[in-house]
Design brief:
The complex is a heterodimer of chains A (about 500) and B (about 120). Chain A contains eleven helices and 23 strands. Chain A is an alpha/beta fold. Chain A has two domains: about 290 residues, FAD/NAD(P)-binding domain (3-Layer(bba) Sandwich); about 160 residues, no CATH class. In chain A, the strands form six sheets. Chain A has a six-stranded parallel beta sheet, with helices on one face. A four-stranded mixed beta sheet of chain A has the order 2-11-10-9. Chain A has a four-stranded antiparallel beta sheet with strand order 6-7-16-15. In chain B, helix 3 crosses helix 6 and helix 4 packs across helix 6. Chain B starts with 6 loop residues before the first helix and ends with a helix. Chain B is mainly alpha-helical. Chain B folds into two domains: about 30 residues; about 80 residues, no CATH class. The chains are: A alpha/beta (about 500), B mainly alpha (about 120). Chains A and B meet through helix 8, helix 9 and strand 21 of A and helix 3, helix 5, strand 1, strand 2 and helix 6 of B. The complex binds flavin-adenine dinucleotide. Flavin-adenine dinucleotide binds next to helix 1, strand 6, strand 9 and helix 11 of chain A.
């Protein structure tokens, strides 16, 4: 078992020459490092942080924001081993086939690979996320007597299930750093450096490959790597920063000949109290409101638009969660009583619940990360985020909620109140998923994407990107399970390439 | 031994119940809110709570630009002769015929009845 190396002890001027350098020890970087265990490749994992939170390291993440109110760039990610899984919620779900498709109603859509590229890797990703047995599809067919679901008439919204990450013997969910530190130390062909901040991607003069990585520590040490290949796994914001800031050879930055790097940044908006759900008989299974351990996994039910509905109605994705019981005002009570009477059902036990959820957004090139003039403690330019949120994306979410209301009425089971209409209502109390996506999107065409189907930066033969930076579109599910699956796919590719 | 319920007492109390019941029945007739006659009373009788429905109807009217009460009433009459409100409301939902009132998603027929209640109350 080899201990992690503290980069602050590496002599200045050292040059390491591994086969592969992984930049960032979040779930993406850790998964790749573990997947390459016991291969002939000599792998180095460079992690900026330590094993726990350090304010000075975390401050390297701070940046500026303009536009729609968004999370603090320092608060919405974590800069130590395990990355943002040190504070994540553990919500897990795979993406749908449609998420990868080019959709006429969604500009800039279409991945250079489909769901089938991730499917072989999801099982292992689920294991790494410690989200229990793979139940997502099976759960949709559980019997009503065993696992009753909200009765809905035929239509576009159905109950589907989240699974949750759980670290054995500890609190949920899995913190990748803490959980896999010992496993990383056991990998003979891997060396992990903590406190190692990559500050520059050194392009060869012909621009065709990375020939050097510059590493700095907050204590003032500097050393370098000359790896055969590099995987950037530093999170979508930091990946854009590294690519843009490494502009000594290519003035626009690495992989940015077509001005795509940093653009199409996205997160999932999580507006609060978006609707009020009424169930006339007041009966709601507990797994809608909270997680429940069942079938060997931690589960929670949500309400999702089906693929068929998204296709036929040209809808964006979303996920609806039932949050808590609530009270109705006088008009609300009257409306519920009047509607139930009109439907011929008893509403004596009618119960109201608040709804929450998240929604997909349309890729927007102007929602972007650029470099600021301010610099961090290592001399790197800080980032600026221009954040946007379109009314039409919110309108899609509202339409799906309305569809849910329609299905409740059709089943004579309940009804819905849509609490949001005007933009101001949506933005009040708006939260975000902390799911940083885009910025190095995948596309077959270098004019439209930063990386290709193999997640290789267009035109830079030995540079790859792992993580949700490569998402060309974003779906509505939490990204980490798919990030890990994609990272495992990339590990396979790189293994083949470097052998 | 004097029984607690003599036959006479039982008869008296039974009569009393009838009387009390009769008063209650009369009172509900007297106390029941009277509405000025409207052209839609036959339709509004289908609603459980006419005042409440009128409130909902105000919100429905705010969402509909060119509500023509006469035409709506004629169409509702035709529909409601053929099926019950419950069946029509359910079919509305199944067929995506919906209206909104203060964000509440309602079957169109119910929404239109409420709109007529609002018109009648205006
Ligand atoms: C509050 C919160 C809740 C969340 N909840 C969920 C959830 O429930 N479900 C879900 O799926 N996702 C959730 N997420 C998102 C999830 O945490 C991320 O999707 C995931 O961590 C991304 O993994 P990653 O490895 O790509 O990047 P990160 O986790 O960001 O890891 C990047 C790593 O790179 C290191 N690094 C950064 N810059 C450098 C550099 N220059 N040099 C060297 N190392 C560097 C960082 O220290 C970090 O360890 C949540 C996130 C937050 C913040």
């Amino acid at each position: 078992m080899s201990a992690f190396i503290d980069a602050r002890t590496v002599p200045d001027g050292t040059v390491l020459e591994p086969d592969l350098a992984i930049v960032g020890g979040g779930p993406a970087g850790i998964s790749i490092a573990l997947a390459l265990a016991n291969t002939p490749l000599r792998v180095v994992l460079l992690e900026s942080g330590d094993m726990s939170f350090d304010p000075a390291t975390q401050a390297l993440y701070s940046g500026n924001k303009t536009g729609v109110k968004y999370l603090g760039l320092e608060a919405s990610r974590m800069r130590f081993l395990g990355g943002s899984t040190n504070i994540w919620g553990g919500w897990s779900r795979p993406m749908d086939k449609i998420d990868f498709e080019e959709r006429s109603w969604m500009p800039h859509s279409g991945w250079p690979f489909g769901l089938e590229a991730l499917q072989p890797h999801y099982a292992r990703a689920q294991t790494l996320c410690e989200a229990g047995p793979w139940l997502y599809e099976q759960a949709e067919h559980w019997s009503q007597s065993e696992m009753p679901t909200v009765p809905l008439g035929a239509g576009g919204v159905a109950t589907r299930w989240f699974q949750f990450s759980k670290m054995r013997g500890s609190l949920l969910p899995t913190h990748f750093g803490e959980r896999y530190a010992d496993d990383l130390k056991k990998v003979r062909n891997l060396t992990t450096y903590l406190h190692a901040n990559v500050t520059r991607l050194g392009l060869a003069f012909n621009g065709g490959q990375i020939e050097r990585l510059d590493v700095a520590t907050l204590s003032g040490r500097h050393f370098a790597l000359k790896p055969k290949a590099v995987i950037l796994a530093a999170g979508a914001v930091e990946i854009a920063r590294l690519l843009l800031a490494s502009n000594d050879v290519a003035p626009a930055g690495v992989g940015n000949a077509n001005d795509v790097v940093g653009r199409y940044f996205a997160d999932h908006p999580i507006p609060r109290d978006i609707g009020t759900l009424i169930l006339f008989d007041g009966k709601l299974a507990p797994y809608y409101l909270n997680t429940q351990t069942t079938h060997g996994a931690i589960l929670r039910a949500g309400l999702f638009p089906s693929e068929g509905y998204r296709r036929s109605k040209a809808m964006l994705d979303s996920s609806i969660t039932i949050e808590s019981k609530t009270l109705l005002d006088a008009l609300g009570k009257t409306t519920v009583a009047t509607t139930a009477a009109a439907l011929g059902v008893d509403a004596g036990k009618a119960t109201a619940f608040t709804l929450g959820g998240g929604c997909e957004v349309t890729p927007d090139p102007d929602c972007r990360i650029t470099l600021d003039s301010a610099r961090d403690a290592l001399g790197m330019p800080r980032v600026k985020l221009q954040m946007k949120l379109s009314d039409s994306d919110l309108a899609h979410f509202r339409a799906t909620l309305k569809e849910l209301g329609r299905q409740l009425l059709a089943a004579r089971a309940g009804m819905i109140r849509l609490n949001m209409k005007e933009r101001g209502q949506w933005l009040t109390g708006l939260d975000w998923g902390n799911h940083h996506m885009g910025t190095a999107r995948a596309h077959v065409d270098p004019k439209k994407g930063v990386v290709d189907a193999n997640l290789q930066v267009h035109g830079v033969a030995n540079l790859f990107v792992a993580g949700s930076a490569v998402y060309p579109t974003y779906g509505a599910v939490n990204p980490t399970l798919s990030i890990v699956a994609m990272a495992l796919r990339l590990a396979d590719h790189v293994k083949g390439l470097l052998k | 031994m004097k029984t607690l319920f003599s036959r006479r007492n039982v008869l008296m109390s039974a009569a009393g119940v009838v009387v009390v019941g009769g008063v209650a029945f009369e009172a509900s007739r007297v106390l029941r809110k009277r509405y000025a006659p409207s052209p839609y009373d036959d339709l509004l009788a289908k609603l459980d709570d006419r005042d409440g429905s009128a409130q909902i109807g105000e919100a429905v009217l705010a969402e509909i630009d060119d509500f023509d009460a006469k035409t709506a009433a004629a169409q509702l009459r035709t529909k409601l002769q053929q099926a019950s409100l419950a069946d029509i409301a359910t079919a509305d939902a199944a067929a995506e015929r919906l209206v909104e009132a203060h964000g509440w998603v309602l079957p169109q027929t119910l929404g239109l009845l409420c709109a007529l209640a609002a018109k009648a109350a205006a």
